Amino acid sequence: MDQLKITYFDVDGGRAEPARLALHIGGIAFEDHRFSFSEFAEVRKATPLSQVPTLQVNDVQVTQSGAITRYVGKLSGLYPEDAFQALLCDEIMDGVEDASIKLGVTFGLTGDDLKNARNDLVVSVFPKYLRWLQKQLESHGGEFFAASSLTIADLKVFVFIRGLNSGHLDHVPTNLVETVAPKLNEHMQRIAQIPAIAQHYSKNSAA
Amino acid sequence: MDQLKITYFDVDGGRAEPARLALHIGGIAFEDHRFSFSEFAEVRKATPLSQVPTLQVNDVQVTQSGAITRYVGKLSGLYPEDAFQALLCDEIMDGVEDASIKLGVTFGLTGDDLKNARNDLVVSVFPKYLRWLQKQLESHGGEFFAASSLTIADLKVFVFIRGLNSGHLDHVPTNLVETVAPKLNEHMQRIAQIPAIAQHYSKNSAA
Q1: What is the pLDDT of residues B60-81, one digit of tens each?
Q2: What pLDDT score does B28 carry?
Q3: CA distances from B34 to A58, B53, B76, B120 (A)
Q4: Nearest CA in chain B to A62
Q5: How many angstroms away from the CA of B85 is the closest CA of chain A?
Q6: Which of A30, A183, B15, B184 lies 20 to 30 angstroms, CA to CA, from B96?
Q7: Which chain A residues are within 8 Å of B65, Cβ to Cβ?
Q8: With DSSP H G I counted as helix, E B as strand and the rest as coil, what are the percentages for chain A, rounded to 5?
Q9: Average pLDDT taken over every residue of chain B
Q10: CATH number of the CATH domain containing B108
Q11: What is the pLDDT of residue B65?
């Protein structure tokens, strides 16, 4: 059995979270190496592109969250074997990553710069992605995003929607998703009830 | 047989090019729908996220270049079946996309803004990615980026390196790759000699 280790910030969200969730659902043991924001400057020195997350597979350290999530998704049975369904799964993964990148560039901004950038996201950017995601969900059966079963696409959307609703993002109203694409909230609630996910969050919030 | 159609700018590069090359190598027929930059405002109205490329598979239009490239890579036998080799292939794909996004935000800038942004890429950003790519190539055997055989990772890197060398990017010296990571140029030259690729470029440049 390969030794797996995920290195990422000590937050229950962001770019490592879909991979963590996939491994929990698959019942695959891994080292969940978490560090604080203040440790990032040191941690990044030992990563391939000064970025996290990384996945270590035995002695090989791999970068890029999409690649990592897809790999552990395969290990966990959460990635479609059918090429066309995998295409639809990947499309959702990459679309959410697209939106996440647009959010990412606003971190580090402050004051009016932050307010204006976030306002632009809320008014112009996120609604476009949210409506697209809701439309994809509906046209693929309403329950899952691809393959009529749980895949890493569902986990990627779940983590993104959970973040938007969290109230942790300044100037992003917590009712944005409910207003623009309420079926994504219903999807989020269904995913949250998956036993391994419910257990993961109850454990971490109790810690 | 599925009807495939790729919609993208009429350029021999950018985000659709690895998918076009994969389909040519695989000998898979597709409609190569190209449009001029001035037509983009109209074309994007009919795309899922106002973005290109799109891939149409019969009557389904799909967005996101990584997803598209991976799908046609599978059709063309250019995507590893082994999960770990697929991880290494995806890591390269996503890493190059990362660098491409950083380049992408400089398009539209002018004057000193463009010069400063491009200079930052040349001094700080691209060398990091180029050295990392060269290191990956070397540690995976020196000839290909994953699976000891041609994959979409090779095509993604090929298109990126070809773009950096092209002289079409203002303030990016055409000897940057040769200076920083010369083995990527050797790789590029090997890939360019693949008959389907050589034929593709000789046909287009003659048109």
Answers
A1: 999 999 999 999 999 999 999 9
A2: 98
A3: 45, 10, 21, 32
A4: B91
A5: 10
A6: A30
A7: 94
A8: 60, 10, 30
A9: 96
A10: 1.20.1050.10
A11: 97
Which one of B84, B89, B102, B138 makes the best mutation probe of the A interface by having the most chain A beta carbons within 10 Å?
B84
Q: How far is B5 from chain A (nearest CA, A)?
A: 15
Does A66 sit within 8 Å of B66, measured CB to CB? yes
Q: Are B73 and B4 in contact (CB under 8 A)?
A: no
A142: left (phi over 0), alpha (psi -120 to 50) or beta: left
Domain that holds residue B176: 83-194
Distance from CA of A48 to the nearest CA of B (A): 7
Query: Residue B95: its pLDDT value, please?
Result: 98
Nearest to B91 among A63, A93, A129 (CB): A63
Tell me how close the Cα of B79 comes to any Cα of chain A, in angstroms: 11
- Residue A1's pLDDT is what? 83
What's the CATH number where A23 sits?
3.40.30.10
What is the rounded CA–CA span in Å between residue A173 and residue A143? 25
Interface touch B86/A71, C-beta < 8 Å: yes
Looking at every residue in chain A, the average pLDDT score rounds to 96
Cβ–Cβ below 8 Å for B84 and A48: no
Take residue A63 and report the two structure tokens written for it: 């970068």
Residue with tokens 């999960």: B83
The pLDDT value recorded for residue B203 is 77
| Counted domains in chain B | 2
Residues 6+ apart with CB under 8 A from B198: B192
Domain ends where: B16, B46, B77?
A: B77
